[in-house]
Amino acid sequence: NAVLVNSANQVVAVVPVAANGAYVFNNVAVGTYSVLTTTATPALGSAPAVPVLPAGFIPTGENVNGAIDPTTNSTLINIAVTTASVTGLNFGIERPPTAGGTNAAPQPNPGGTTNVTVPAAAFTTGSTDPDGTIASYVITQFPTNATSITINGTTYTAATFPGTGVTIPAAQIGTVSVDPIDGSVLVSIPFAVVDNAGEISPNTGNA
Fold it and tell me: What is the pTM (predicted TM-score) of this model?
């Protein structure tokens, strides 16, 4: 639903949002309003509750004819209504991606400083985006049981690995290799995924 709230913080109209995202409030009196989107149907005259989105969805932003609202909360405030129609009050929601990952098949540890290639499937298996595509992978921490990790030609150690992680475009996810510490060990690489809308997965996977 789209909910219209007046300057006294009272709900004055509730209308459904069509499948294409369109909604219309008719016969709105001159004044200043807020508009919010929610799955709830608040009573007219009541104070609006915090917007509730469908299960699994998150807000991605709001704008007025392209002017971005700095606060992402499924609410637009201070919308002035005069005698002309007001258009372009837009809300964005989406289902965020999920990071999966799986352990690669065991292989002999080459020892020394020899790198082992990490198959792309170790990252892509189980990583999904329900309403788009995965645009990039973010290795969030230095791998366990490794002396170095090489990503698209750049080698990092525990001392040089960036605190913000390293982002890899999806097309380059096969460019990762690690130098495991000597012995029979399991190298674990924590990562998140970013979808084509720029949203990062709320969970961390492991390759």
Answer: 0.79
